[in-house]
Amino acid sequence: MTDGAHEGPTHSGGISGQPSVRRGTITNVTSTPAEEQRLRDLALLRRVRDRIDREYAQPLNVEALARGVHMSAGHLSREFRLAYGESPYGYLMTRRIERAMALLRRGDLSVTEVCFAVGCQSLGTFSTRFTELVGMPPSAYRREATQATAGLPACVAKKVTRPVRNREAKPVQPQLA
Q1: Are residues 29 and 19 in contact, defined by beta-carbon separation less than 8 angstroms?
Q2: Cβ count near 88 (within 10 Å)
Q3: Where is this region: Disordered (predicted)?
Q4: Which end of the chain has the lower number of beta carbons within 10 A, N or C?
């Protein structure tokens, strides 16, 4: 056919959000390559977050997490912070501290045993991060939590004692001897 007549669907959809057909390929009018890449990145970030939730007790680091989703460590850190408001390492440590709090509430493990059980390899780093998130050292938390949560179901105790982010925790006052 000539005279500008069309054979088959080759029109461009004018309604936003409606698919348009052009040369046999269907595309979404509002979709751009940047938006599609962002959606792919978000799916990968969910995989990273899920892996952290599952494997928090394993020796994880940002480089290993990034390799698992074929990103650079820098790109993963930037995108994770944009999506979740904290770095992958910060999220990992929060998960570890949450689990440590549960173990310390039980009262049958020492602070050192809890530190290694949640995947931390340095008692000093664990104690520092715990104090930043919870507002007290792990040993003090263990003493107080076993008394404060006595008789509470574990699910209630977990909710009541959930750690806060660094900027929400009470500042730790240095104690002079």
Answers
A1: yes
A2: 24
A3: 1-34
A4: C
Fold (topology level) of 92-168: Arc Repressor Mutant, subunit A (1.10.10)
Owner of token pair 């076993």: 146
Query: For residue 26, which phi and psi values (nearest 5 degrees)?
Result: -95, 130
**Which whole-number Å values give the CA distances from 16 to 20, 33, 65, 83, 161, in the listed order?**
10, 16, 37, 26, 47
pLDDT at 153: 78
Q: For residue 22, how many other CB atoms are within 10 A of its CB?
A: 12
62, two tokens: 């940002």
Measured distance CA(12)–CA(24) in Å, rounded: 11
CA distance 104 to 130: 12
Average pLDDT by consecutive 10-residue portion of the chain (177 residues)? Answer: 48 49 54 84 94 94 93 94 94 95 91 97 95 95 79 72 54 51
Domains of the chain by residue range: 35-89, 92-168
| Separation between Cα atoms, residue 72 and residue 133, nearest integer Å | 28
